[in-house]
Write a structure and sequence with these properties.
The protein is mainly beta. It is built from 1 helix and 6 strands. The chain has a domain of 49 residues. The strands form 2 sheets. It has a 3-stranded antiparallel β-sheet, with no helix packed on it. It is elongated and about 45 Å long. The structure holds zinc ion (ZN). Zinc ion binds next to loops. InterPro entries: TackOD1. This is Thaumarchaeal output domain-containing protein.
Length: 75
């Protein structure tokens, strides 16, 4: 029995993927999507994310690469 465990350590600050579910237009962190039988479940519509780039897609990461704290205070 070979279980393919490619799970990284969840401790510490880690970038998460921002996932866009096309079917219901939900956008959220990958950690918001529960896992069931290897599939991610959308927290909004409770449907599984099946086909990447068809049903869902990764639209970015959080925190974003180009995050600049200056932009928030600049008025
Ligand atoms: Zn959804």
């Amino acid at each position: 029995m070979s279980s393919n465990k490619a799970i990284s350590h969840e401790s510490g600050v880690k970038k998460r993927a921002l996932i866009h579910h096309f079917l219901c237009a939900y956008v959220g962190l990958s950690s918001d999507f529960k896992r069931s039988n290897g599939d991610r479940i959308c927290p909004k519509c409770q449907r599984a994310l099946i086909q990447k780039n068809n049903d869902w897609n990764v639209v970015g990461t959080f925190p974003p690469k180009n995050y600049s704290p200056k932009a928030a205070t600049d008025s």
